[in-house]
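Lab notebook: predicted structure, single chain.

Context: the supervisor wants predicted structures on file for every construct in the current expression panel, including those that have not yet been purified. This is the next one on the list. No modifications to the sequence; it matches the entry in the shared construct table.
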Amino acid sequence: MQIERLIRKYEKELEKNHLSCQRREALRREILRLRLALYDQRFTQSFEKKIEFSKQLIRKTVEEHSGKCAVACSFGKDSMVVLHLVLQFDPKVMVVYNNTGVEYPETKEFKEKVKKEWNLNLVETWPEKTFWQCVQEYGYPELRYKHGSPRCCYWLKEKPTKLLIKREGVEVLFLGLTSSESYQRKWTIVNYGPRYSTRKNAPYEIVKVHPIAYWKEEDVWRYIKENDIPVHPAYSYTNRIGCLPCTGYRDWMILLARVNPRLLRKILKDRSESKRQGEGLSRFF
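Prediction complete. Output recorded below exactly as produced.
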């Protein structure tokens, strides 16, 4: 709490207009140092304390935005944990599932099973463009750590979610992001914390909440085991659940060679032809 108070104190001072450039820069450096210290403190705390922190964050958010919350759920391990946590405080919370049309074949049956067993208020979105239309127009997605979020993610997930949020009057979106997944995600949490408001690319405000932002992968699996949470069957042969033909992560070829060799051959052929024709493999915002 002491670190948080200092951050707020220095941020308030930073808002003043009369500060010298030297003082302003010193404050920015100190705020960043404190944010990193706070991140390390939360990331290294015990499993029990992480659960307590997550529940306090969810409870406070649900109380402040009663009836206006939603959980983004892919039915992978991280979003299943977040869903399990949020349901303890908001049993009727809206559960948003982005049907991209290119999910793992087991996802549909698993989704329906969880929906029935957990009595979910499930809302499914569908995209205006299919994944393959996005590939035709923008090319296959490139590595995220180099190029950021690809256009297919916008059309398949981000835009449908934004339209749903606006239509249903959702104020809060709980997500299964963990900072240990990538460098970019870590710095999102360092800079903004596990809960923040955003108006980026939208004419309305949404509060994004990441209840398990400070959890490690072993924390996620431990919580799943201790709470008997259903596990997507595809985890028996892969370590990620999402769009099957995605090429936007490091080991996509290795995974696809094991899961669907025929699809891998098609993608490699498409990319090879694009190179010969002198086309870029993907285009971004």
